[in-house]
Design a protein that fits this description.
With 157 residues, this protein is mostly beta strands. The chain has a single domain (3-155), classed as glutathione-dependent formaldehyde- activating enzyme (gfa) (Alpha-Beta Complex). It has 1 helix and 10 strands, in the order βββαβββββββ. Strands 6-7-8-9-4-3-10 form a 7-stranded mixed β-sheet, covered by helices on one side. It has a 3-stranded antiparallel β-sheet with strand order 1-2-5, with no helix packed on it. β1 (6-10) and β2 (17-21) form a beta hairpin. It starts with 5 loop residues before the first strand and ends in a 36-residue tail after the last strand. The protein binds zinc ion (2 copies). The site of one zinc ion (ZN) has 9 residues, from loops.
Length: 157
């Protein structure tokens, strides 16, 4: 976690660069199918920020809607997974929406050490050959710390 300074990051090819200002709200490693498939990896580590603290200074992400209201941002040139956002669905009240927040893949920061994960979420969904032997909490679904505020059952699909 990082206090009131700028951290930078970007995609593999350099077409997209961003700056995040200040503290992340939380950091989690997710093992759900959508995260894994979109990252092409057995897990993805997310740091959540207030959207107002994140600025794209070069290029912009291509967005893929993986579920209603859920947008995953990636580089259209090199395919790097960069962001996740949960916006209100069209024309309906949506208590799961988090329009003021953006998740950034920790591995896209120039110094991923700045954002050590605090927990594992949806850990039971991981592939069986992957065992994580750290002391962080391992949640079956989301944790309170993950702050899917109103609905613990929401999914990050
Ligand atoms: Zn790229
Ligand atoms: Zn996930």
């Amino acid at each position: 976690m990082n206090d009131s300074n700028i951290t930078t990051g970007g995609c593999l090819c350099g077409a997209i660069r961003f700056e995040a200002n200040g503290r992340s709200l939380w950091q989690s490693i997710c093992y759900c199918e959508s995260c894994c498939r979109s990252a092409g990896a057995p897990l993805i580590a997310w740091a959540c920020f207030d959207k107002s603290n994140v600025k794209f200074i070069k290029g912009e992400t291509t967005r893929f809607q993986s579920s209603p209201g859920v947008y995953r941002g990636f580089c259209g040139s090199c395919g790097t997974t960069l962001t996740y956002g949960r916006e209100p669905r069209d024309n309906q009240e949506d208590l799961n929406a988090r329009p003021d927040e953006i998740f950034i893949s920790i591995s896209t920061f120039d110094d991923p050490e700045e954002f050590p994960p605090e927990e594992h979420i949806r850990y039971v969904e991981r592939v069986s050959w992957l065992q994580i032997d750290d002391n962080l909490p391992k949640h079956k679904g989301f944790s309170a710390a993950h702050r899917f505020r109103q609905h613990q059952k929401s999914s990050c699909k």
